[in-house]
Write a structure and sequence with these properties.
By secondary structure, the chain is α/β, with parallel strands linked by helices. It has an eleven-stranded mixed β-sheet, with helices on both faces. Strand 28 and strand 29 form a beta hairpin. Helix 13 packs across helix 22. The longest helix has 27 residues. The protein starts with a strand and ends with a helix. About 2% of the residues have low confidence. The structure holds zinc ion (ZN) (2 copies). The site of one zinc ion has 9 residues, from helix 4. The site of one zinc ion has 7 residues, from helix 3.
């Protein structure tokens, strides 16, 4: 008997063929295995050939994700041996593996002075190493990666061609004799050093309290000793004093525990092959300087994801041996650093830098030295950021380690593109049965980010051989993504309302058909009624939506500029609460004093002008206003800072809700004016920012739950979908979720894409695909 087996999914670059080869040999079978651009093709013959597909299903290689396994009979050929054949092109495309953090086997060799790859910073195997970031084309073979220029030395070639070796067909396989090398340059033209000397120089630089720019897996990173307050302050200063948190890297979970609380689930996430940045509760009194994350209650930690990172912690500059036992893998001596700041190497809002020439030009003002290497980064991927919440992983940023894993969609549909929004942009391409969400691209506000958008789109279209027949875009005419979509001739274009796309992203992930009660809370999104939306209750499914309620729209004084200055928004809410005039209260007078009396007067005047001050129902603005009033943040140095400070001030405690009203009419409006007046009472009685912050969160949660209850009673719907960046606020998400549960209703949230605007491209693509299917 001979059987033909076609396997699809993430089956290339994950050690699939050696597994097949070993399995076939164990069962005494003849035949072949080969990669094609559609997946992996296998033919087996022999007495036990019938057992093969079940055996493969039962024990696939650890990193494989099988989405299809088709078995059929084939004519017997009397083959004598089982062989691995060269790859074959086959029309369709195959799923590309994401990049994978260094595995335990490779780390043991890296730390073993007797191993030929001792301290070699590019060690990898079929179970680990770069994938997506180095792949130019499929099939995933070495000539189609940025490893093509490196010819294998005889020893590496032997491993590569030996099916019994754990580096069999490991495309990035390399060693110090034949592979990429690291180079160190001090800023100011000091002589370059290579190999372990370069790593030693980089460590010395970091120990001296300086800032290092290093080429990581998917782009450059800026590093400094996280416990050196002066070094952190220098980096903060050079990063133009934005208060955005720096990511941290520690060498193991025990080290992370010195600074942050780590649950068993969070530990598993930190150690996972994806190695994301995990947001963790800061341990009181931790030695991490405040300047690392001035606005946040959490610290974002990751473990080393490449051998180069690992060596920064463990390579001893004085003695040429590592501090980790090759046998136990445990630290025998303390590492060079307890923690390193490891933040994205970019300028302001531009994407992460991937090439050395650009890095040396644009990162020079930030760094005192460069640790480069000559393995090309084809696709840049930033570090992913996640957190655990109520037993699930929530994405803040989805990139390295997770992209391009496909998200399955129901049924089969035409290929479409959702081109996303403006900030935290991603795009989504669909294949017949799934959605490919791009890595985090960034804010589409400058030329470099637009280039990144276009290069990533071209790459994913070509790798997956997707030619979208239609494009979904946001309704905002000023978004780059909208303007770009409208320029694409010969392709159907369709505008999707921002908050409907948020809710649809939850439908796409969960497979819920709807209709659902959708609650989309974010900063701003274009409303079809010429106001800015952002505190929205939608009755929505995959075909239509109705705005069933919203937060009360208030003037955004001077337009989008108010977003950077929460005090302006606070004055606007207070004027609304006071019926057009500011309440004469101590906290209001203090706010006006801080802002300057004439600036405050100007804001109140501009507020009356509807051309200059559009109405906004944005939930983000509401939180920012409360933060300013509570004296926590008058100016945002990055998007969402004031709201983040408000959540941090609450310290996880909610308190008694303030009063609010829900107006009648169509649609009903949630009016927080009574809450602002009661908040002023609290402040007048001497309540601190923490108490006020907790009560304010409780208020918004209570109002949302009340409105959800009303919609449930009016419609009978029991499924509630929550999305939008404001739901990244854990205190709010927890309170809303438990309130909805108390009503006996079901909450659904994003868990495969971010709830922020990084998720809307998935919603757009999902809706457009359904629309085309319905029109058919
Ligand atoms: Zn490995
Ligand atoms: Zn070699």
């Amino acid at each position: 008997m001979r059987w033909r087996i076609d396997v699809t999914g993430v089956v290339q670059g994950v050690g699939f063929r050696p597994t097949v080869w070993r399995l076939a040999r164990e069962l005494g079978l003849a035949g072949f295995v080969r990669n094609s651009s559609a997946g992996v093709e296998i033919e087996v013959e022999g007495a036990r050939a019938g057992e093969f597909s079940d055996a493969l299903r039962a024990s696939p290689p650890p990193l494989a994700r099988i989405t299809g396994l088709e078995v059929r009979e084939a004519p017997e050929q009397g083959a004598a041996d089982f062989v691995i054949l060269p790859s074959r092109e086959a029309g369709a495309s195959t799923d590309l593996s994401p990049d994978v953090a260094t595995c335990g086997d490779c780390l043991r060799e890296l730390a073993d002075p007797a191993d030929r790859r001792f301290a070699y910073p590019f060690i990898n195997c079929t179970n680990c190493g770069p994938r997506y970031s180095i792949t130019l084309r499929v099939p995933y073979d070495r000539p189609n990666t940025t490893m093509a220029p490196f010819a294998l030395c005889p020893e590496c070639a032997r491993e590569y061609h030996d099916p019994a070796d754990r580096r069999f067909h490991a495309q990035p396989n390399a060693c110090a004799a034949c592979g990429p090398t690291v180079t160190f340059h001090g800023v100011g033209g000091a002589d370059a050093m290579t190999g372990v000397e370069a790593i030693r120089a980089a460590i010395t630089l970091l120990l001296d309290g300086k800032v290092l720019a290093l080429k990581g897996l998917g782009g450059y990173q800026l590093a400094c000793d996280a416990l050196d307050a002066a070094a952190v302050a220098t980096l903060r200063e050079r990063k133009r004093r934005s208060n955005k948190a720096f990511a941290l890297m520690a060498c193991d979970v025990d080290s992370v525990r010195a600074f942050a609380e780590v649950s068993a689930e969070e530990e598993a996430l930190l150690r996972s092959p994806e190695r994301p940045i995990v947001l963790l509760a800061r341990r009181p009194g931790s030695l991490i300087p405040d300047a690392v994350a001035p606005a946040a209650a959490d610290l974002g930690f990751m473990l080393p994801n490449t051998p180069l990172h690992w060596l920064l912690f463990h390579w001893r500059s004085a003695v040429r041996e590592p501090c980790v036992s090759a046998v136990s893998g445990r630290a025998e001596r303390s590492p060079n650093f307890k923690a390193l700041v490891m933040t994205s190497g970019n300028v302001a809002d531009e994407p992460i830098v991937k090439n050395a020439d650009v890095a040396h030009r644009v990162l020079a003002p930030f760094a005192d030295g460069f640790l480069d290497h000559d393995r090309g980064i084809f696709m840049r991927v930033d570090d992913s950021v996640v957190r655990r919440f109520a037993g699930r992983t929530l994405f803040v940023r989805r990139a390295r380690g997770y992209v391009p894993v496909a998200i399955p969609l129901p049924g089969s549909g035409p290929p479409v593109l959702g081109c996303g929004g403006e900030v935290k942009n991603t795009f989504t391409l669909t294949t017949p049965g799934s959605a490919l969400v791009s890595q985090h691209i960034g804010d589409l506000e400058n030329h470099e980010t637009l280039e990144f958008f276009l290069e990533t789109l071209e790459n994913l279209k070509s790798v997956y051989r997707v030619a979208p027949v239609a494009i979904a875009h946001d309704l905002h005419p000023g978004y780059f993504s909208t303007r770009w979509a409208l320029e694409q001739a010969g392709c159907e274009r369709w505008g999707v309302q921002h908050h409907w796309a948020h809710i649809a992203s939850v439908l796409a992930e969960t497979g819920l058909a709807g209709p659902v009660i959708g609650v989309a809370l974010d900063g701003s999104g274009y409303g079809p009624d010429d106001t800015i939306w952002g505190g929205e209750f939608l009755i929505a499914d995959g075909h239509s939506y109705e705005r069933a309620a919203s937060f009360l729209p208030v003037p955004l004084p001077g337009g989008e500029g108010a977003i950077r200055h929460p005090w302006r928004m606070a004055l606007s809410y207070l004027a609304t609460a006071g019926g057009g005039v500011l309440p004469d209260r101590a906290a209001v007078r203090a706010l006006v004093t801080r802002a300057g009396a004439s600036a405050a007067a100007t804001v109140l005047k501009v507020r009356e002008n509807r051309t200059l001050s559009p109405l906004s129902s944005g939930a983000g603005r509401l939180f920012e206003a409360a933060a300013a009033l509570a004296g926590l943040c008058d100016h945002n140095t990055f998007e969402g800072e004031a709201a983040m400070r408000l959540e941090a001030a609450a310290g996880g405690r909610l308190g008694e809700p303030y009063p609010f009203t829900i107006t009648g009419g169509a649609p009903p409006r949630l009016d927080f004016s009574p809450a602002f007046l009661a908040l002023l009472d609290d402040l007048e009685f001497g309540a601190g920012g923490g108490l006020v912050a907790g009560r304010f969160h409780a208020t918004v949660a209570a109002a949302v739950v009340e409105q959800v209850g009303r919609l449930h009673r009016a419609t009978g719907l029991r499924d509630v979908a929550l999305s939008g960046g404001v739901f990244q606020n854990r205190l709010l998400l927890g309170a809303v979720t438990s309130g909805i549960a108390a009503l006996g209703l079901h909450t659904h949230t994003n868990s495969r894409v971010p709830a922020n605007d990084g998720g809307i491209s998935l919603g757009q693509a999902y809706l457009l695909r359904l629309r085309l299917l319905a029109l058919k």
